[in-house]
From TrEMBL:
Keywords, ordered alphabetically: Membrane, Transmembrane, Transmembrane helix
Membrane association type: Multi-pass membrane protein
Cell location: Membrane
Protein name: Clarin-2
Amino acid sequence: MPGCFKKTLFALASAMSFVSFILIVVAMGTQKWITGKILCKTGADLVNATDPELVKFTGDIYYGLFRGGKVRQCGLGGRRSKFTLFPHLVKKLNTGLHVMIIIFLCVAISFALISFGFCILNIIQVPYRAIKGPAGICLWNLLAGGFTALAVASFIAAVKLHHLTERIANFQEIFQFLVLEEQYEGSFWLCVASATAHGVNLLLIALSAIRFPEFKTKTEEANVTAEDIMY
Protein backbone atom coordinates (compact mmCIF):
# COMPACT_ATOMS: atom_id res chain seq x y z
CA MET A 1 0.00 0.00 0.00
CA PRO A 2 2.71 2.61 0.82
CA GLY A 3 4.46 1.81 -2.48
CA CYS A 4 1.25 2.35 -4.48
CA PHE A 5 0.59 5.57 -2.58
CA LYS A 6 4.04 6.95 -3.45
CA LYS A 7 3.71 5.93 -7.09
CA THR A 8 0.35 7.70 -7.26
CA LEU A 9 1.88 10.88 -5.83
CA PHE A 10 4.80 10.71 -8.26
CA ALA A 11 2.33 10.21 -11.12
CA LEU A 12 0.40 13.31 -10.03
CA ALA A 13 3.67 15.25 -9.70
CA SER A 14 4.74 14.21 -13.20
CA ALA A 15 1.36 15.31 -14.57
CA MET A 16 1.68 18.69 -12.81
CA SER A 17 5.19 19.18 -14.23
CA PHE A 18 3.99 18.43 -17.74
CA VAL A 19 1.01 20.76 -17.31
CA SER A 20 3.39 23.48 -16.11
CA PHE A 21 5.50 22.99 -19.23
CA ILE A 22 2.42 23.29 -21.46
CA LEU A 23 1.21 26.41 -19.64
CA ILE A 24 4.49 28.26 -20.17
CA VAL A 25 4.67 27.29 -23.84
CA VAL A 26 1.09 28.47 -24.41
CA ALA A 27 1.76 31.70 -22.48
CA MET A 28 4.81 32.50 -24.61
CA GLY A 29 2.95 31.67 -27.81
CA THR A 30 -0.14 33.77 -27.14
CA GLN A 31 -0.05 37.56 -27.13
CA LYS A 32 -2.60 38.63 -24.56
CA TRP A 33 -0.41 39.40 -21.54
CA ILE A 34 -1.72 42.95 -21.15
CA THR A 35 -4.80 44.74 -22.47
CA GLY A 36 -5.58 48.37 -21.85
CA LYS A 37 -7.22 51.63 -22.84
CA ILE A 38 -5.15 54.42 -24.39
CA LEU A 39 -6.15 58.07 -24.80
CA CYS A 40 -4.94 60.18 -27.71
CA LYS A 41 -4.00 63.18 -25.55
CA THR A 42 -2.77 65.34 -28.42
CA GLY A 43 -5.98 64.92 -30.41
CA ALA A 44 -8.15 65.57 -27.36
CA ASP A 45 -6.18 68.74 -26.53
CA LEU A 46 -6.47 70.06 -30.09
CA VAL A 47 -10.28 70.12 -29.94
CA ASN A 48 -10.56 70.71 -26.17
CA ALA A 49 -12.58 67.50 -25.80
CA THR A 50 -14.68 67.20 -22.67
CA ASP A 51 -15.50 64.00 -20.78
CA PRO A 52 -18.37 62.80 -23.02
CA GLU A 53 -16.25 63.42 -26.13
CA LEU A 54 -13.19 61.56 -24.84
CA VAL A 55 -14.75 58.28 -26.03
CA LYS A 56 -13.84 59.31 -29.58
CA PHE A 57 -10.18 59.58 -28.51
CA THR A 58 -9.96 56.36 -26.47
CA GLY A 59 -8.49 53.30 -28.14
CA ASP A 60 -7.38 49.81 -27.15
CA ILE A 61 -4.03 48.07 -26.90
CA TYR A 62 -2.85 44.53 -26.25
CA TYR A 63 0.55 42.89 -26.38
CA GLY A 64 2.62 39.92 -25.29
CA LEU A 65 6.30 39.08 -25.25
CA PHE A 66 6.80 39.20 -29.02
CA ARG A 67 3.96 41.10 -30.70
CA GLY A 68 0.69 42.92 -30.17
CA GLY A 69 -1.78 45.35 -31.64
CA LYS A 70 -3.67 48.56 -30.94
CA VAL A 71 -6.60 50.64 -32.10
CA ARG A 72 -5.82 54.37 -32.41
CA GLN A 73 -8.72 56.72 -31.80
CA CYS A 74 -7.88 60.34 -32.54
CA GLY A 75 -11.35 61.67 -33.29
CA LEU A 76 -11.58 60.42 -36.87
CA GLY A 77 -12.45 56.78 -36.24
CA GLY A 78 -10.40 53.82 -35.17
CA ARG A 79 -7.25 52.75 -37.00
CA ARG A 80 -6.01 49.23 -36.30
CA SER A 81 -2.34 48.36 -36.42
CA LYS A 82 -0.14 45.47 -35.35
CA PHE A 83 3.46 45.54 -34.20
CA THR A 84 6.30 43.20 -33.27
CA LEU A 85 8.61 43.82 -30.35
CA PHE A 86 11.63 42.35 -32.14
CA PRO A 87 13.83 43.73 -33.56
CA HIS A 88 12.89 47.44 -33.52
CA LEU A 89 10.38 48.08 -30.75
CA VAL A 90 12.41 46.30 -28.07
CA LYS A 91 15.13 48.94 -28.46
CA LYS A 92 12.71 51.54 -27.09
CA LEU A 93 11.92 49.39 -24.06
CA ASN A 94 14.12 48.14 -21.24
CA THR A 95 15.83 45.63 -23.52
CA GLY A 96 17.75 43.78 -20.80
CA LEU A 97 14.69 43.28 -18.62
CA HIS A 98 12.50 42.12 -21.52
CA VAL A 99 15.10 39.61 -22.72
CA MET A 100 15.55 38.36 -19.14
CA ILE A 101 11.80 37.59 -18.94
CA ILE A 102 12.06 35.41 -22.05
CA ILE A 103 15.23 33.70 -20.79
CA PHE A 104 13.66 33.00 -17.38
CA LEU A 105 10.66 31.35 -19.05
CA CYS A 106 12.87 29.25 -21.34
CA VAL A 107 14.91 28.04 -18.37
CA ALA A 108 11.69 27.28 -16.47
CA ILE A 109 10.51 25.17 -19.42
CA SER A 110 13.73 23.14 -19.27
CA PHE A 111 13.50 22.55 -15.53
CA ALA A 112 9.82 21.61 -15.80
CA LEU A 113 10.72 18.91 -18.32
CA ILE A 114 13.57 17.69 -16.10
CA SER A 115 11.17 17.53 -13.16
CA PHE A 116 8.75 15.53 -15.31
CA GLY A 117 11.53 13.09 -16.20
CA PHE A 118 12.60 12.66 -12.57
CA CYS A 119 9.02 11.85 -11.56
CA ILE A 120 8.80 9.17 -14.25
CA LEU A 121 12.11 7.68 -13.10
CA ASN A 122 10.86 7.47 -9.54
CA ILE A 123 7.65 5.78 -10.68
CA ILE A 124 9.51 3.00 -12.50
CA GLN A 125 12.10 2.82 -9.67
CA VAL A 126 15.32 3.26 -11.60
CA PRO A 127 18.03 1.87 -9.30
CA TYR A 128 20.30 4.92 -9.19
CA ARG A 129 20.53 6.65 -5.84
CA ALA A 130 21.53 9.93 -7.46
CA ILE A 131 18.17 9.93 -9.26
CA LYS A 132 15.87 7.97 -7.01
CA GLY A 133 14.08 9.77 -4.19
CA PRO A 134 12.12 12.98 -3.67
CA ALA A 135 15.13 15.27 -3.16
CA GLY A 136 15.91 15.55 -6.88
CA ILE A 137 12.28 16.25 -7.78
CA CYS A 138 12.05 18.97 -5.12
CA LEU A 139 15.22 20.60 -6.48
CA TRP A 140 13.99 20.79 -10.07
CA ASN A 141 10.54 21.96 -9.03
CA LEU A 142 12.07 24.71 -6.91
CA LEU A 143 14.19 25.84 -9.85
CA ALA A 144 11.32 25.68 -12.36
CA GLY A 145 8.88 27.48 -10.07
CA GLY A 146 11.52 30.00 -9.03
CA PHE A 147 12.44 30.98 -12.59
CA THR A 148 8.76 31.26 -13.53
CA ALA A 149 8.16 33.50 -10.51
CA LEU A 150 11.18 35.61 -11.52
CA ALA A 151 9.74 36.01 -15.02
CA VAL A 152 6.36 37.06 -13.61
CA ALA A 153 7.97 39.53 -11.19
CA SER A 154 10.16 40.96 -13.97
CA PHE A 155 7.15 41.46 -16.22
CA ILE A 156 5.25 43.25 -13.45
CA ALA A 157 8.30 45.47 -12.90
CA ALA A 158 8.45 46.27 -16.62
CA VAL A 159 4.76 47.22 -16.66
CA LYS A 160 4.61 49.19 -13.40
CA LEU A 161 8.09 50.65 -12.99
CA HIS A 162 9.24 51.05 -16.59
CA HIS A 163 5.82 52.01 -18.05
CA LEU A 164 5.93 49.28 -20.67
CA THR A 165 2.40 49.88 -22.00
CA GLU A 166 2.96 53.61 -22.44
CA ARG A 167 6.24 53.07 -24.29
CA ILE A 168 4.64 50.58 -26.65
CA ALA A 169 1.60 52.81 -27.23
CA ASN A 170 3.82 55.77 -28.21
CA PHE A 171 6.21 53.86 -30.45
CA GLN A 172 6.56 55.66 -33.81
CA GLU A 173 3.60 57.93 -33.04
CA ILE A 174 3.38 61.67 -33.72
CA PHE A 175 0.56 62.13 -31.23
CA GLN A 176 1.02 61.44 -27.54
CA PHE A 177 -0.94 58.60 -25.97
CA LEU A 178 -1.74 58.14 -22.29
CA VAL A 179 -2.60 54.81 -20.65
CA LEU A 180 -5.97 55.08 -18.93
CA GLU A 181 -6.14 51.51 -17.67
CA GLU A 182 -4.32 48.23 -18.09
CA GLN A 183 -4.94 44.74 -16.82
CA TYR A 184 -3.20 41.38 -16.91
CA GLU A 185 -4.76 38.85 -19.22
CA GLY A 186 -4.82 35.07 -19.70
CA SER A 187 -1.23 34.57 -20.87
CA PHE A 188 0.13 36.27 -17.77
CA TRP A 189 -2.06 34.19 -15.46
CA LEU A 190 -0.94 31.01 -17.22
CA CYS A 191 2.58 31.71 -15.97
CA VAL A 192 1.24 32.31 -12.47
CA ALA A 193 -0.60 28.97 -12.70
CA SER A 194 2.61 27.28 -13.84
CA ALA A 195 4.51 28.52 -10.78
CA THR A 196 1.60 27.40 -8.59
CA ALA A 197 1.74 23.93 -10.15
CA HIS A 198 5.35 23.55 -9.01
CA GLY A 199 4.32 24.62 -5.53
CA VAL A 200 1.68 21.88 -5.55
CA ASN A 201 4.38 19.45 -6.67
CA LEU A 202 6.49 20.30 -3.63
CA LEU A 203 3.50 19.50 -1.43
CA LEU A 204 2.97 16.17 -3.20
CA ILE A 205 6.63 15.21 -2.81
CA ALA A 206 6.48 16.14 0.88
CA LEU A 207 3.51 13.80 1.26
CA SER A 208 5.44 11.02 -0.47
CA ALA A 209 8.12 11.20 2.24
CA ILE A 210 5.61 10.21 4.92
CA ARG A 211 6.27 6.70 6.14
CA PHE A 212 3.19 4.68 6.85
CA PRO A 213 3.33 1.76 9.30
CA GLU A 214 3.36 -1.65 7.68
CA PHE A 215 0.80 -4.08 8.99
CA LYS A 216 2.11 -7.64 9.22
CA THR A 217 -0.03 -10.65 10.01
CA LYS A 218 1.10 -12.43 13.14
CA THR A 219 2.03 -16.03 12.43
CA GLU A 220 0.74 -18.58 14.86
CA GLU A 221 3.43 -20.30 16.88
CA ALA A 222 3.56 -24.00 16.27
CA ASN A 223 3.02 -26.11 19.38
CA VAL A 224 5.47 -28.98 19.21
CA THR A 225 4.59 -31.91 21.42
CA ALA A 226 6.34 -35.18 22.21
CA GLU A 227 3.90 -37.06 19.95
CA ASP A 228 4.85 -34.83 17.01
CA ILE A 229 8.50 -35.63 17.56
CA MET A 230 7.82 -39.37 17.66
CA TYR A 231 5.87 -39.32 14.43
